[in-house]
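Lab meeting, item 3. Inverse folding demo.
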């Protein structure tokens, strides 16, 4: 069995746990914050932005791993095991401040492993099939997320009180801990190499690529803008549904938003649609110009956000959730693999860490910006502002289309030589 087959095998196994963890960070942790701990806007935004620290530490992690001579798989395994310990602690101790702190540490450790995993994909998956392998693995994660989200939502709804969480869901924390532990095992089995050290001694030395690579810089700036437009409304979807009564003077939902229905709209439907569209976007990623692909995805994101926050019926919200699933299916492939189209093969982890660094900045800013703006304007108006920001930054991205094609062909040639 060669390195591609081994990687594909254990990534498919890891995808089962990854799907469960996806429901934690997109829905259930915020639902617990809203309905059990009754946190204010700042605390909820902190939870939504928890992964930002891990993103921003990406360059430090990559630099440190290179200095220590650890393999990427071994390091990712240790980070996932640390995150599992955090959730295990949250399962046995019920405290609101420990809840916030544990989530911050767990998500920091989990997201810090992402550039290491991208480097593994670069080394073990052939360039012409990278999107295909990733999307096939994503299909397993999607089924896992949709199934667990629906099941967990049903269990929470059928507790003592269908409207609010009747008791602290410690069992969810235990499930999330087990999912991270499983990821740690799978990471340890991946064929992995040590990283090529970037010149310099500064822990953030990977950021030099932002300065030196003009095209890379242009993409990151555009991504920053349309990312903020999307991310500042992402946690507000939970707020829009779970705290509907607090905004009754602005809008009134035409149905009872139980945990099961919230899970259906925010977890099951988007993931069911992602399951259908992931293979398509994976193939398009391998064959299509990245800039065009990214703009098409942004269009779907913008439309889904506007429709979601202008809908008060179950039907409208389900359609918006479906469109979000279409966008998210391709957005996940593009977000995870795009640096492999532009970065030199030996510096994929460095480029990805820089991408994560700026992603961390917008992940931190966006939820606070969203929760602050929702106090100044209706969600429907905020969605129009976000959609406008996404469209404008998408047009700016297309302005460098010729340079992107030239860089992509150059990176592909380098990749073939390294294969």
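The presenter then showed the designed sequence:
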């Amino acid at each position: 069995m060669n390195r591609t087959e081994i990687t594909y095998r254990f990534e498919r196994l890891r995808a089962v746990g990854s799907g469960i963890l996806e429901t934690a960070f997109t829905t259930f942790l915020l639902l617990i914050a809203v309905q059990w701990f009754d946190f204010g806007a700042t605390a909820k935004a902190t939870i939504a932005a928890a992964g930002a620290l891990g993103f921003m530490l990406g360059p430090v992690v990559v630099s440190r791993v290179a200095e220590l001579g650890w393999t990427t798989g071994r390091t990712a395994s240790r980070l996932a095991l640390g995150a599992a310990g955090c959730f295990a602690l949250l399962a046995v101790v019920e405290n609101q401040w420990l809840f916030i702190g544990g989530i911050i540490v767990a998500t920091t450790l989990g997201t810090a492993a992402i550039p290491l995993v991208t480097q593994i994909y670069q080394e073990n998956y052939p360039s012409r099939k990278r999107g295909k392998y990733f999307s096939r693995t994503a299909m397993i994660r999607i089924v896992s997320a949709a199934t667990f989200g629906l099941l967990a939502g049903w269990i929470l709804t059928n507790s003592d009180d269908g409207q609010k969480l009747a008791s602290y869901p410690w069992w969810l924390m235990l499930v999330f801990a087990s999912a991270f532990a499983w990821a740690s095992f799978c990471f340890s089995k991946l064929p992995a190499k040590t990283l090529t050290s970037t010149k310099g001694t500064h822990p953030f030395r990977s950021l030099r690529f932002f300065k030196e690579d003009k095209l890379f810089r242009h993409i990151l700036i555009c991504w920053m803008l349309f990312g903020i437009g999307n991310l500042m409304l992402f946690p507000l979807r939970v707020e829009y549904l779970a705290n509907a009564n607090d905004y009754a003077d602005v809008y009134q939902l035409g149905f009872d938003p139980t945990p099961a229905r919230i899970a259906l709209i925010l977890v099951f439907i988007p993931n069911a649609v992602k399951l259908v569209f992931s293979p398509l976007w994976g193939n398009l990623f391998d064959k299509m110009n990245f800039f065009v692909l990214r703009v098409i995805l942004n269009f779907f994101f913008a439309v889904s956000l506007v429709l979601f926050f202008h809908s008060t019926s179950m039907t409208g919200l389900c359609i918006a959730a479906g469109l979000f699933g279409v966008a998210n299916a391709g957005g996940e492939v593009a977000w995870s693999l795009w640096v492999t189209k532009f970065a030199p093969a030996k510096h994929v982890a460095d480029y990805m860490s820089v991408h994560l660094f700026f992603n961390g900045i917008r992940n931190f800013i966006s939820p606070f910006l969203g929760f602050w703006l929702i106090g100044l304007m209706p969600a429907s108006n905020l969605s129009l502002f976000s959609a406008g920001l996404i469209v404008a930054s998408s047009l700016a991205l297309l302005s460098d289309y010729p340079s992107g094609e030239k860089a992509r062909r150059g990176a592909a040639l380098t990749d073939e030589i390294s294969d």
